[in-house]
Design goal:
By secondary structure, this protein is an alpha+beta fold. The protein has a domain at 269-480: 2-Layer Sandwich (Alpha-Beta Plaits), CATH 3.30.70.890. Helices cover 40% and strands 22% of the residues. The strands form four sheets. Strands 1, 2, 5, 6, 7, 8, 9, 10 and 11 form a nine-stranded mixed β-sheet that branches. It has a four-stranded antiparallel β-sheet with strand order 15-16-12-17. Strands 3-4 form a two-stranded antiparallel sheet. Helix 5 crosses helix 6. The longest helix has 23 residues, at 365-387.
């Protein structure tokens, strides 16, 4: 397998221009004037915004290489929260993406600039020293890093930018003596269930790796980015977000079997069909209590089945179990719900290193154990129908039904939301007569974005859904349409075209 390395670098030169007393940095990009989907004019604009965020101080040194990486968000078409239970998930990389530019510093300073942070209740600039991540010359333990980044809530976002660098140091033996300047820009909206955090983590990781000259293979990059989110940022996500951001391909669904992360190929969306995302405007977080509650309950159910029925239900991942076996033989073995204390008295730990049961909390064992088993089966059928071309109207309606079943199962687990239910209900009301087949809540649920499947020409119906939702709720939903390559596919396209700074 090829390893990922920076395909190109950009050079910076100071210009005689000034804006508000600050120098305007001109960007020169080698070759075509295009750097993995980023026009030179966009790079100039983003560097200008970064300079404004730092009160005019230049972020990068002139005439030295700057590494750039781009990583898209993702739309969860099928699978979602079942990723941590070993299920098949089908994910589409979005057109929207995060971009990171990185350059080794001339001293040990760490500088992260993310313009626009003040608009989302965080600081736009984070400053530290390399020694903060490498006390005594060795990387911080992830738990210590999490506490360090979360000392101030306004700075906690930096865990998503520098957490990947810390995991890179730990995994690759990297011990830099120079700090890092990092500029982050993203048009993947936060809290909408489209993996804004994974896009930032992957872009930051690959830009830092490029700046320090560290080679990565794509699966390794996804794992390190996920570890940063789990262990440093403290959000218990599965790996599908980071893997899609790294390995997705434009216009296709990444088929990922999460045991722990086997890419089973790319599923082409047949001609005549399209997938959209409709943002409910309700903020979502995989670090939220509802998501963690469902995850803990699923791991409890897995532990109970392995303990109480080892001959019948021995498994490593819940999704290995068939829906028929579960319904016929295993469901009666599970309690409807169970408290942490009652579970631990009999079964000990859940086996999940990421999400821990909370004291004096009851967990809905049955529904949360059932969900990934059935969702895995739904995803398998969904993939097979797409692979067969989904040319018949009945096949397309079956795809829609699978999405609607998935949506209902999210609600059963406690991850539903009145606003996303309204969007799904409107899609159902318009239905195949208007070219809409099905819809489901995505990602970690509890708000965020709804994925919608329809005919390729159903754009007017999608806008009608959005207008009806806006009229009913007062929220104007963002429509996600289009797709783009993941970071790895992007890098492969540019492979072998390395250029020095201007």
């Amino acid at each position: 397998m090829k390893t990922w390395r920076m395909a190109r670098v950009i050079g910076l030169t100071p210009s005689p221009l000034h804006r508000n007393g600050a120098p305007v940095w001109l960007v020169r990009i080698a070759g075509t004037g295009r750097l993995r989907g980023m026009e030179s004019a966009d790079a100039r604009r983003e560097l200008s915004l970064a300079a404004e965020a730092t009160a005019g101080a230049p972020v990068f040194a002139p005439d030295r290489p700057v590494a750039l990486a781009r990583a898209p968000g993702r739309l969860d078409v099928m699978g979602g929260i079942s990723d941590y239970s070993g299920a098949l998930v089908l994910q589409m990389p979005l057109r929207e993406a995060a971009r990171a530019m990185a350059q080794p510093a001339e001293d040990d300073r760490l500088l992260v600039v993310s313009p626009g942070g003040d608009d989302v209740h965080r600081r736009s600039v984070f400053r530290a020293r390399l020694s903060d991540l490498l006390p005594g010359g060795e990387p911080l333990a992830p738990e210590a890093a999490r506490a360090w980044f979360h000392r101030d809530p306004l700075d906690a976002w930096a865990a998503y930018a520098l957490g990947p660098l810390l995991m890179l140091m730990r995994a690759k033996g990297l011990r830099p003596t120079q700090g890092l300047s990092l500029v982050l820009m993203s048009d993947v909206p936060e809290g909408r269930g489209v993996s804004s955090s994974a896009a930032v983590e992957v872009a930051s990781l690959l830009a830092a790796a490029g700046a320090y000259g560290v080679d990565l293979d794509p699966d390794e990059a996804a794992r390190l980015a996920q570890q940063a989110e789990n262990l440093v940022a403290g959000a218990p996500c599965g790996i599908m977000d980071q893997m899609t951001s790294v390995r997705g391909e434009a216009g296709k669904l990444l088929a990922l079997l999460c045991r722990p992360a086997t890419v089973e190929g790319q599923v082409t969306i047949p001609p005549g069909l399209a997938v959209w995302g409709l943002d409910s405007g309700v903020r979502h977080s995989v670090g939220g209590a509802a998501y963690a509650r469902v995850r803990v309950a699923a791991f409890m159910g897995s532990r109970i089945l392995n303990h109480d029925a080892p001959d019948l239900a021995a498994h490593t991942h819940l999704a290995e179990l068939s829906p028929s076996l579960f319904a016929d033989r295993l469901l009666p073995l599970l309690p409807e719900s169970l408290s942490t204390e009652a579970f631990e008295r009999v079964y000990g730990e859940t086996g999940d290193p990421v999400a821990r049961p909370q004291p004096e909390t009851r967990y809905p064992i049955r529904v949360c154990t059932r969900h990934p088993i059935y969702e895995h089966h739904r995803s398998q059928v969904f993939r097979e129908i797409l692979a067969d071309g989904a040319a018949r109207e009945s096949a397309r309606e079956m795809l829609g039904e699978l999405m609607l079943q998935s949506h209902a199962s999210y609600s059963d687990c406690g991850l539903g939301c009145a606003e996303t239910d309204r969007i799904v209900a409107e899609v159902r009301r318009l239905g195949p007569a208007r070219g809409l087949y099905g819809a489901r809540i995505t990602g970690g649920g509890s708000g965020g974005t709804v994925a919608i499947l329809g005919r390729a020409e159903a754009g007017d119906a999608i806008r009608e859904v959005a207008d009806a939702y806006a009229a009913e709720t007062g929220r104007t939903p963002r429509i996600f349409e289009g797709s783009s390559d993941g970071a790895w596919a992007d890098a492969v396209h540019e492979q072998g075209e390395t250029h020095g700074g201007a």
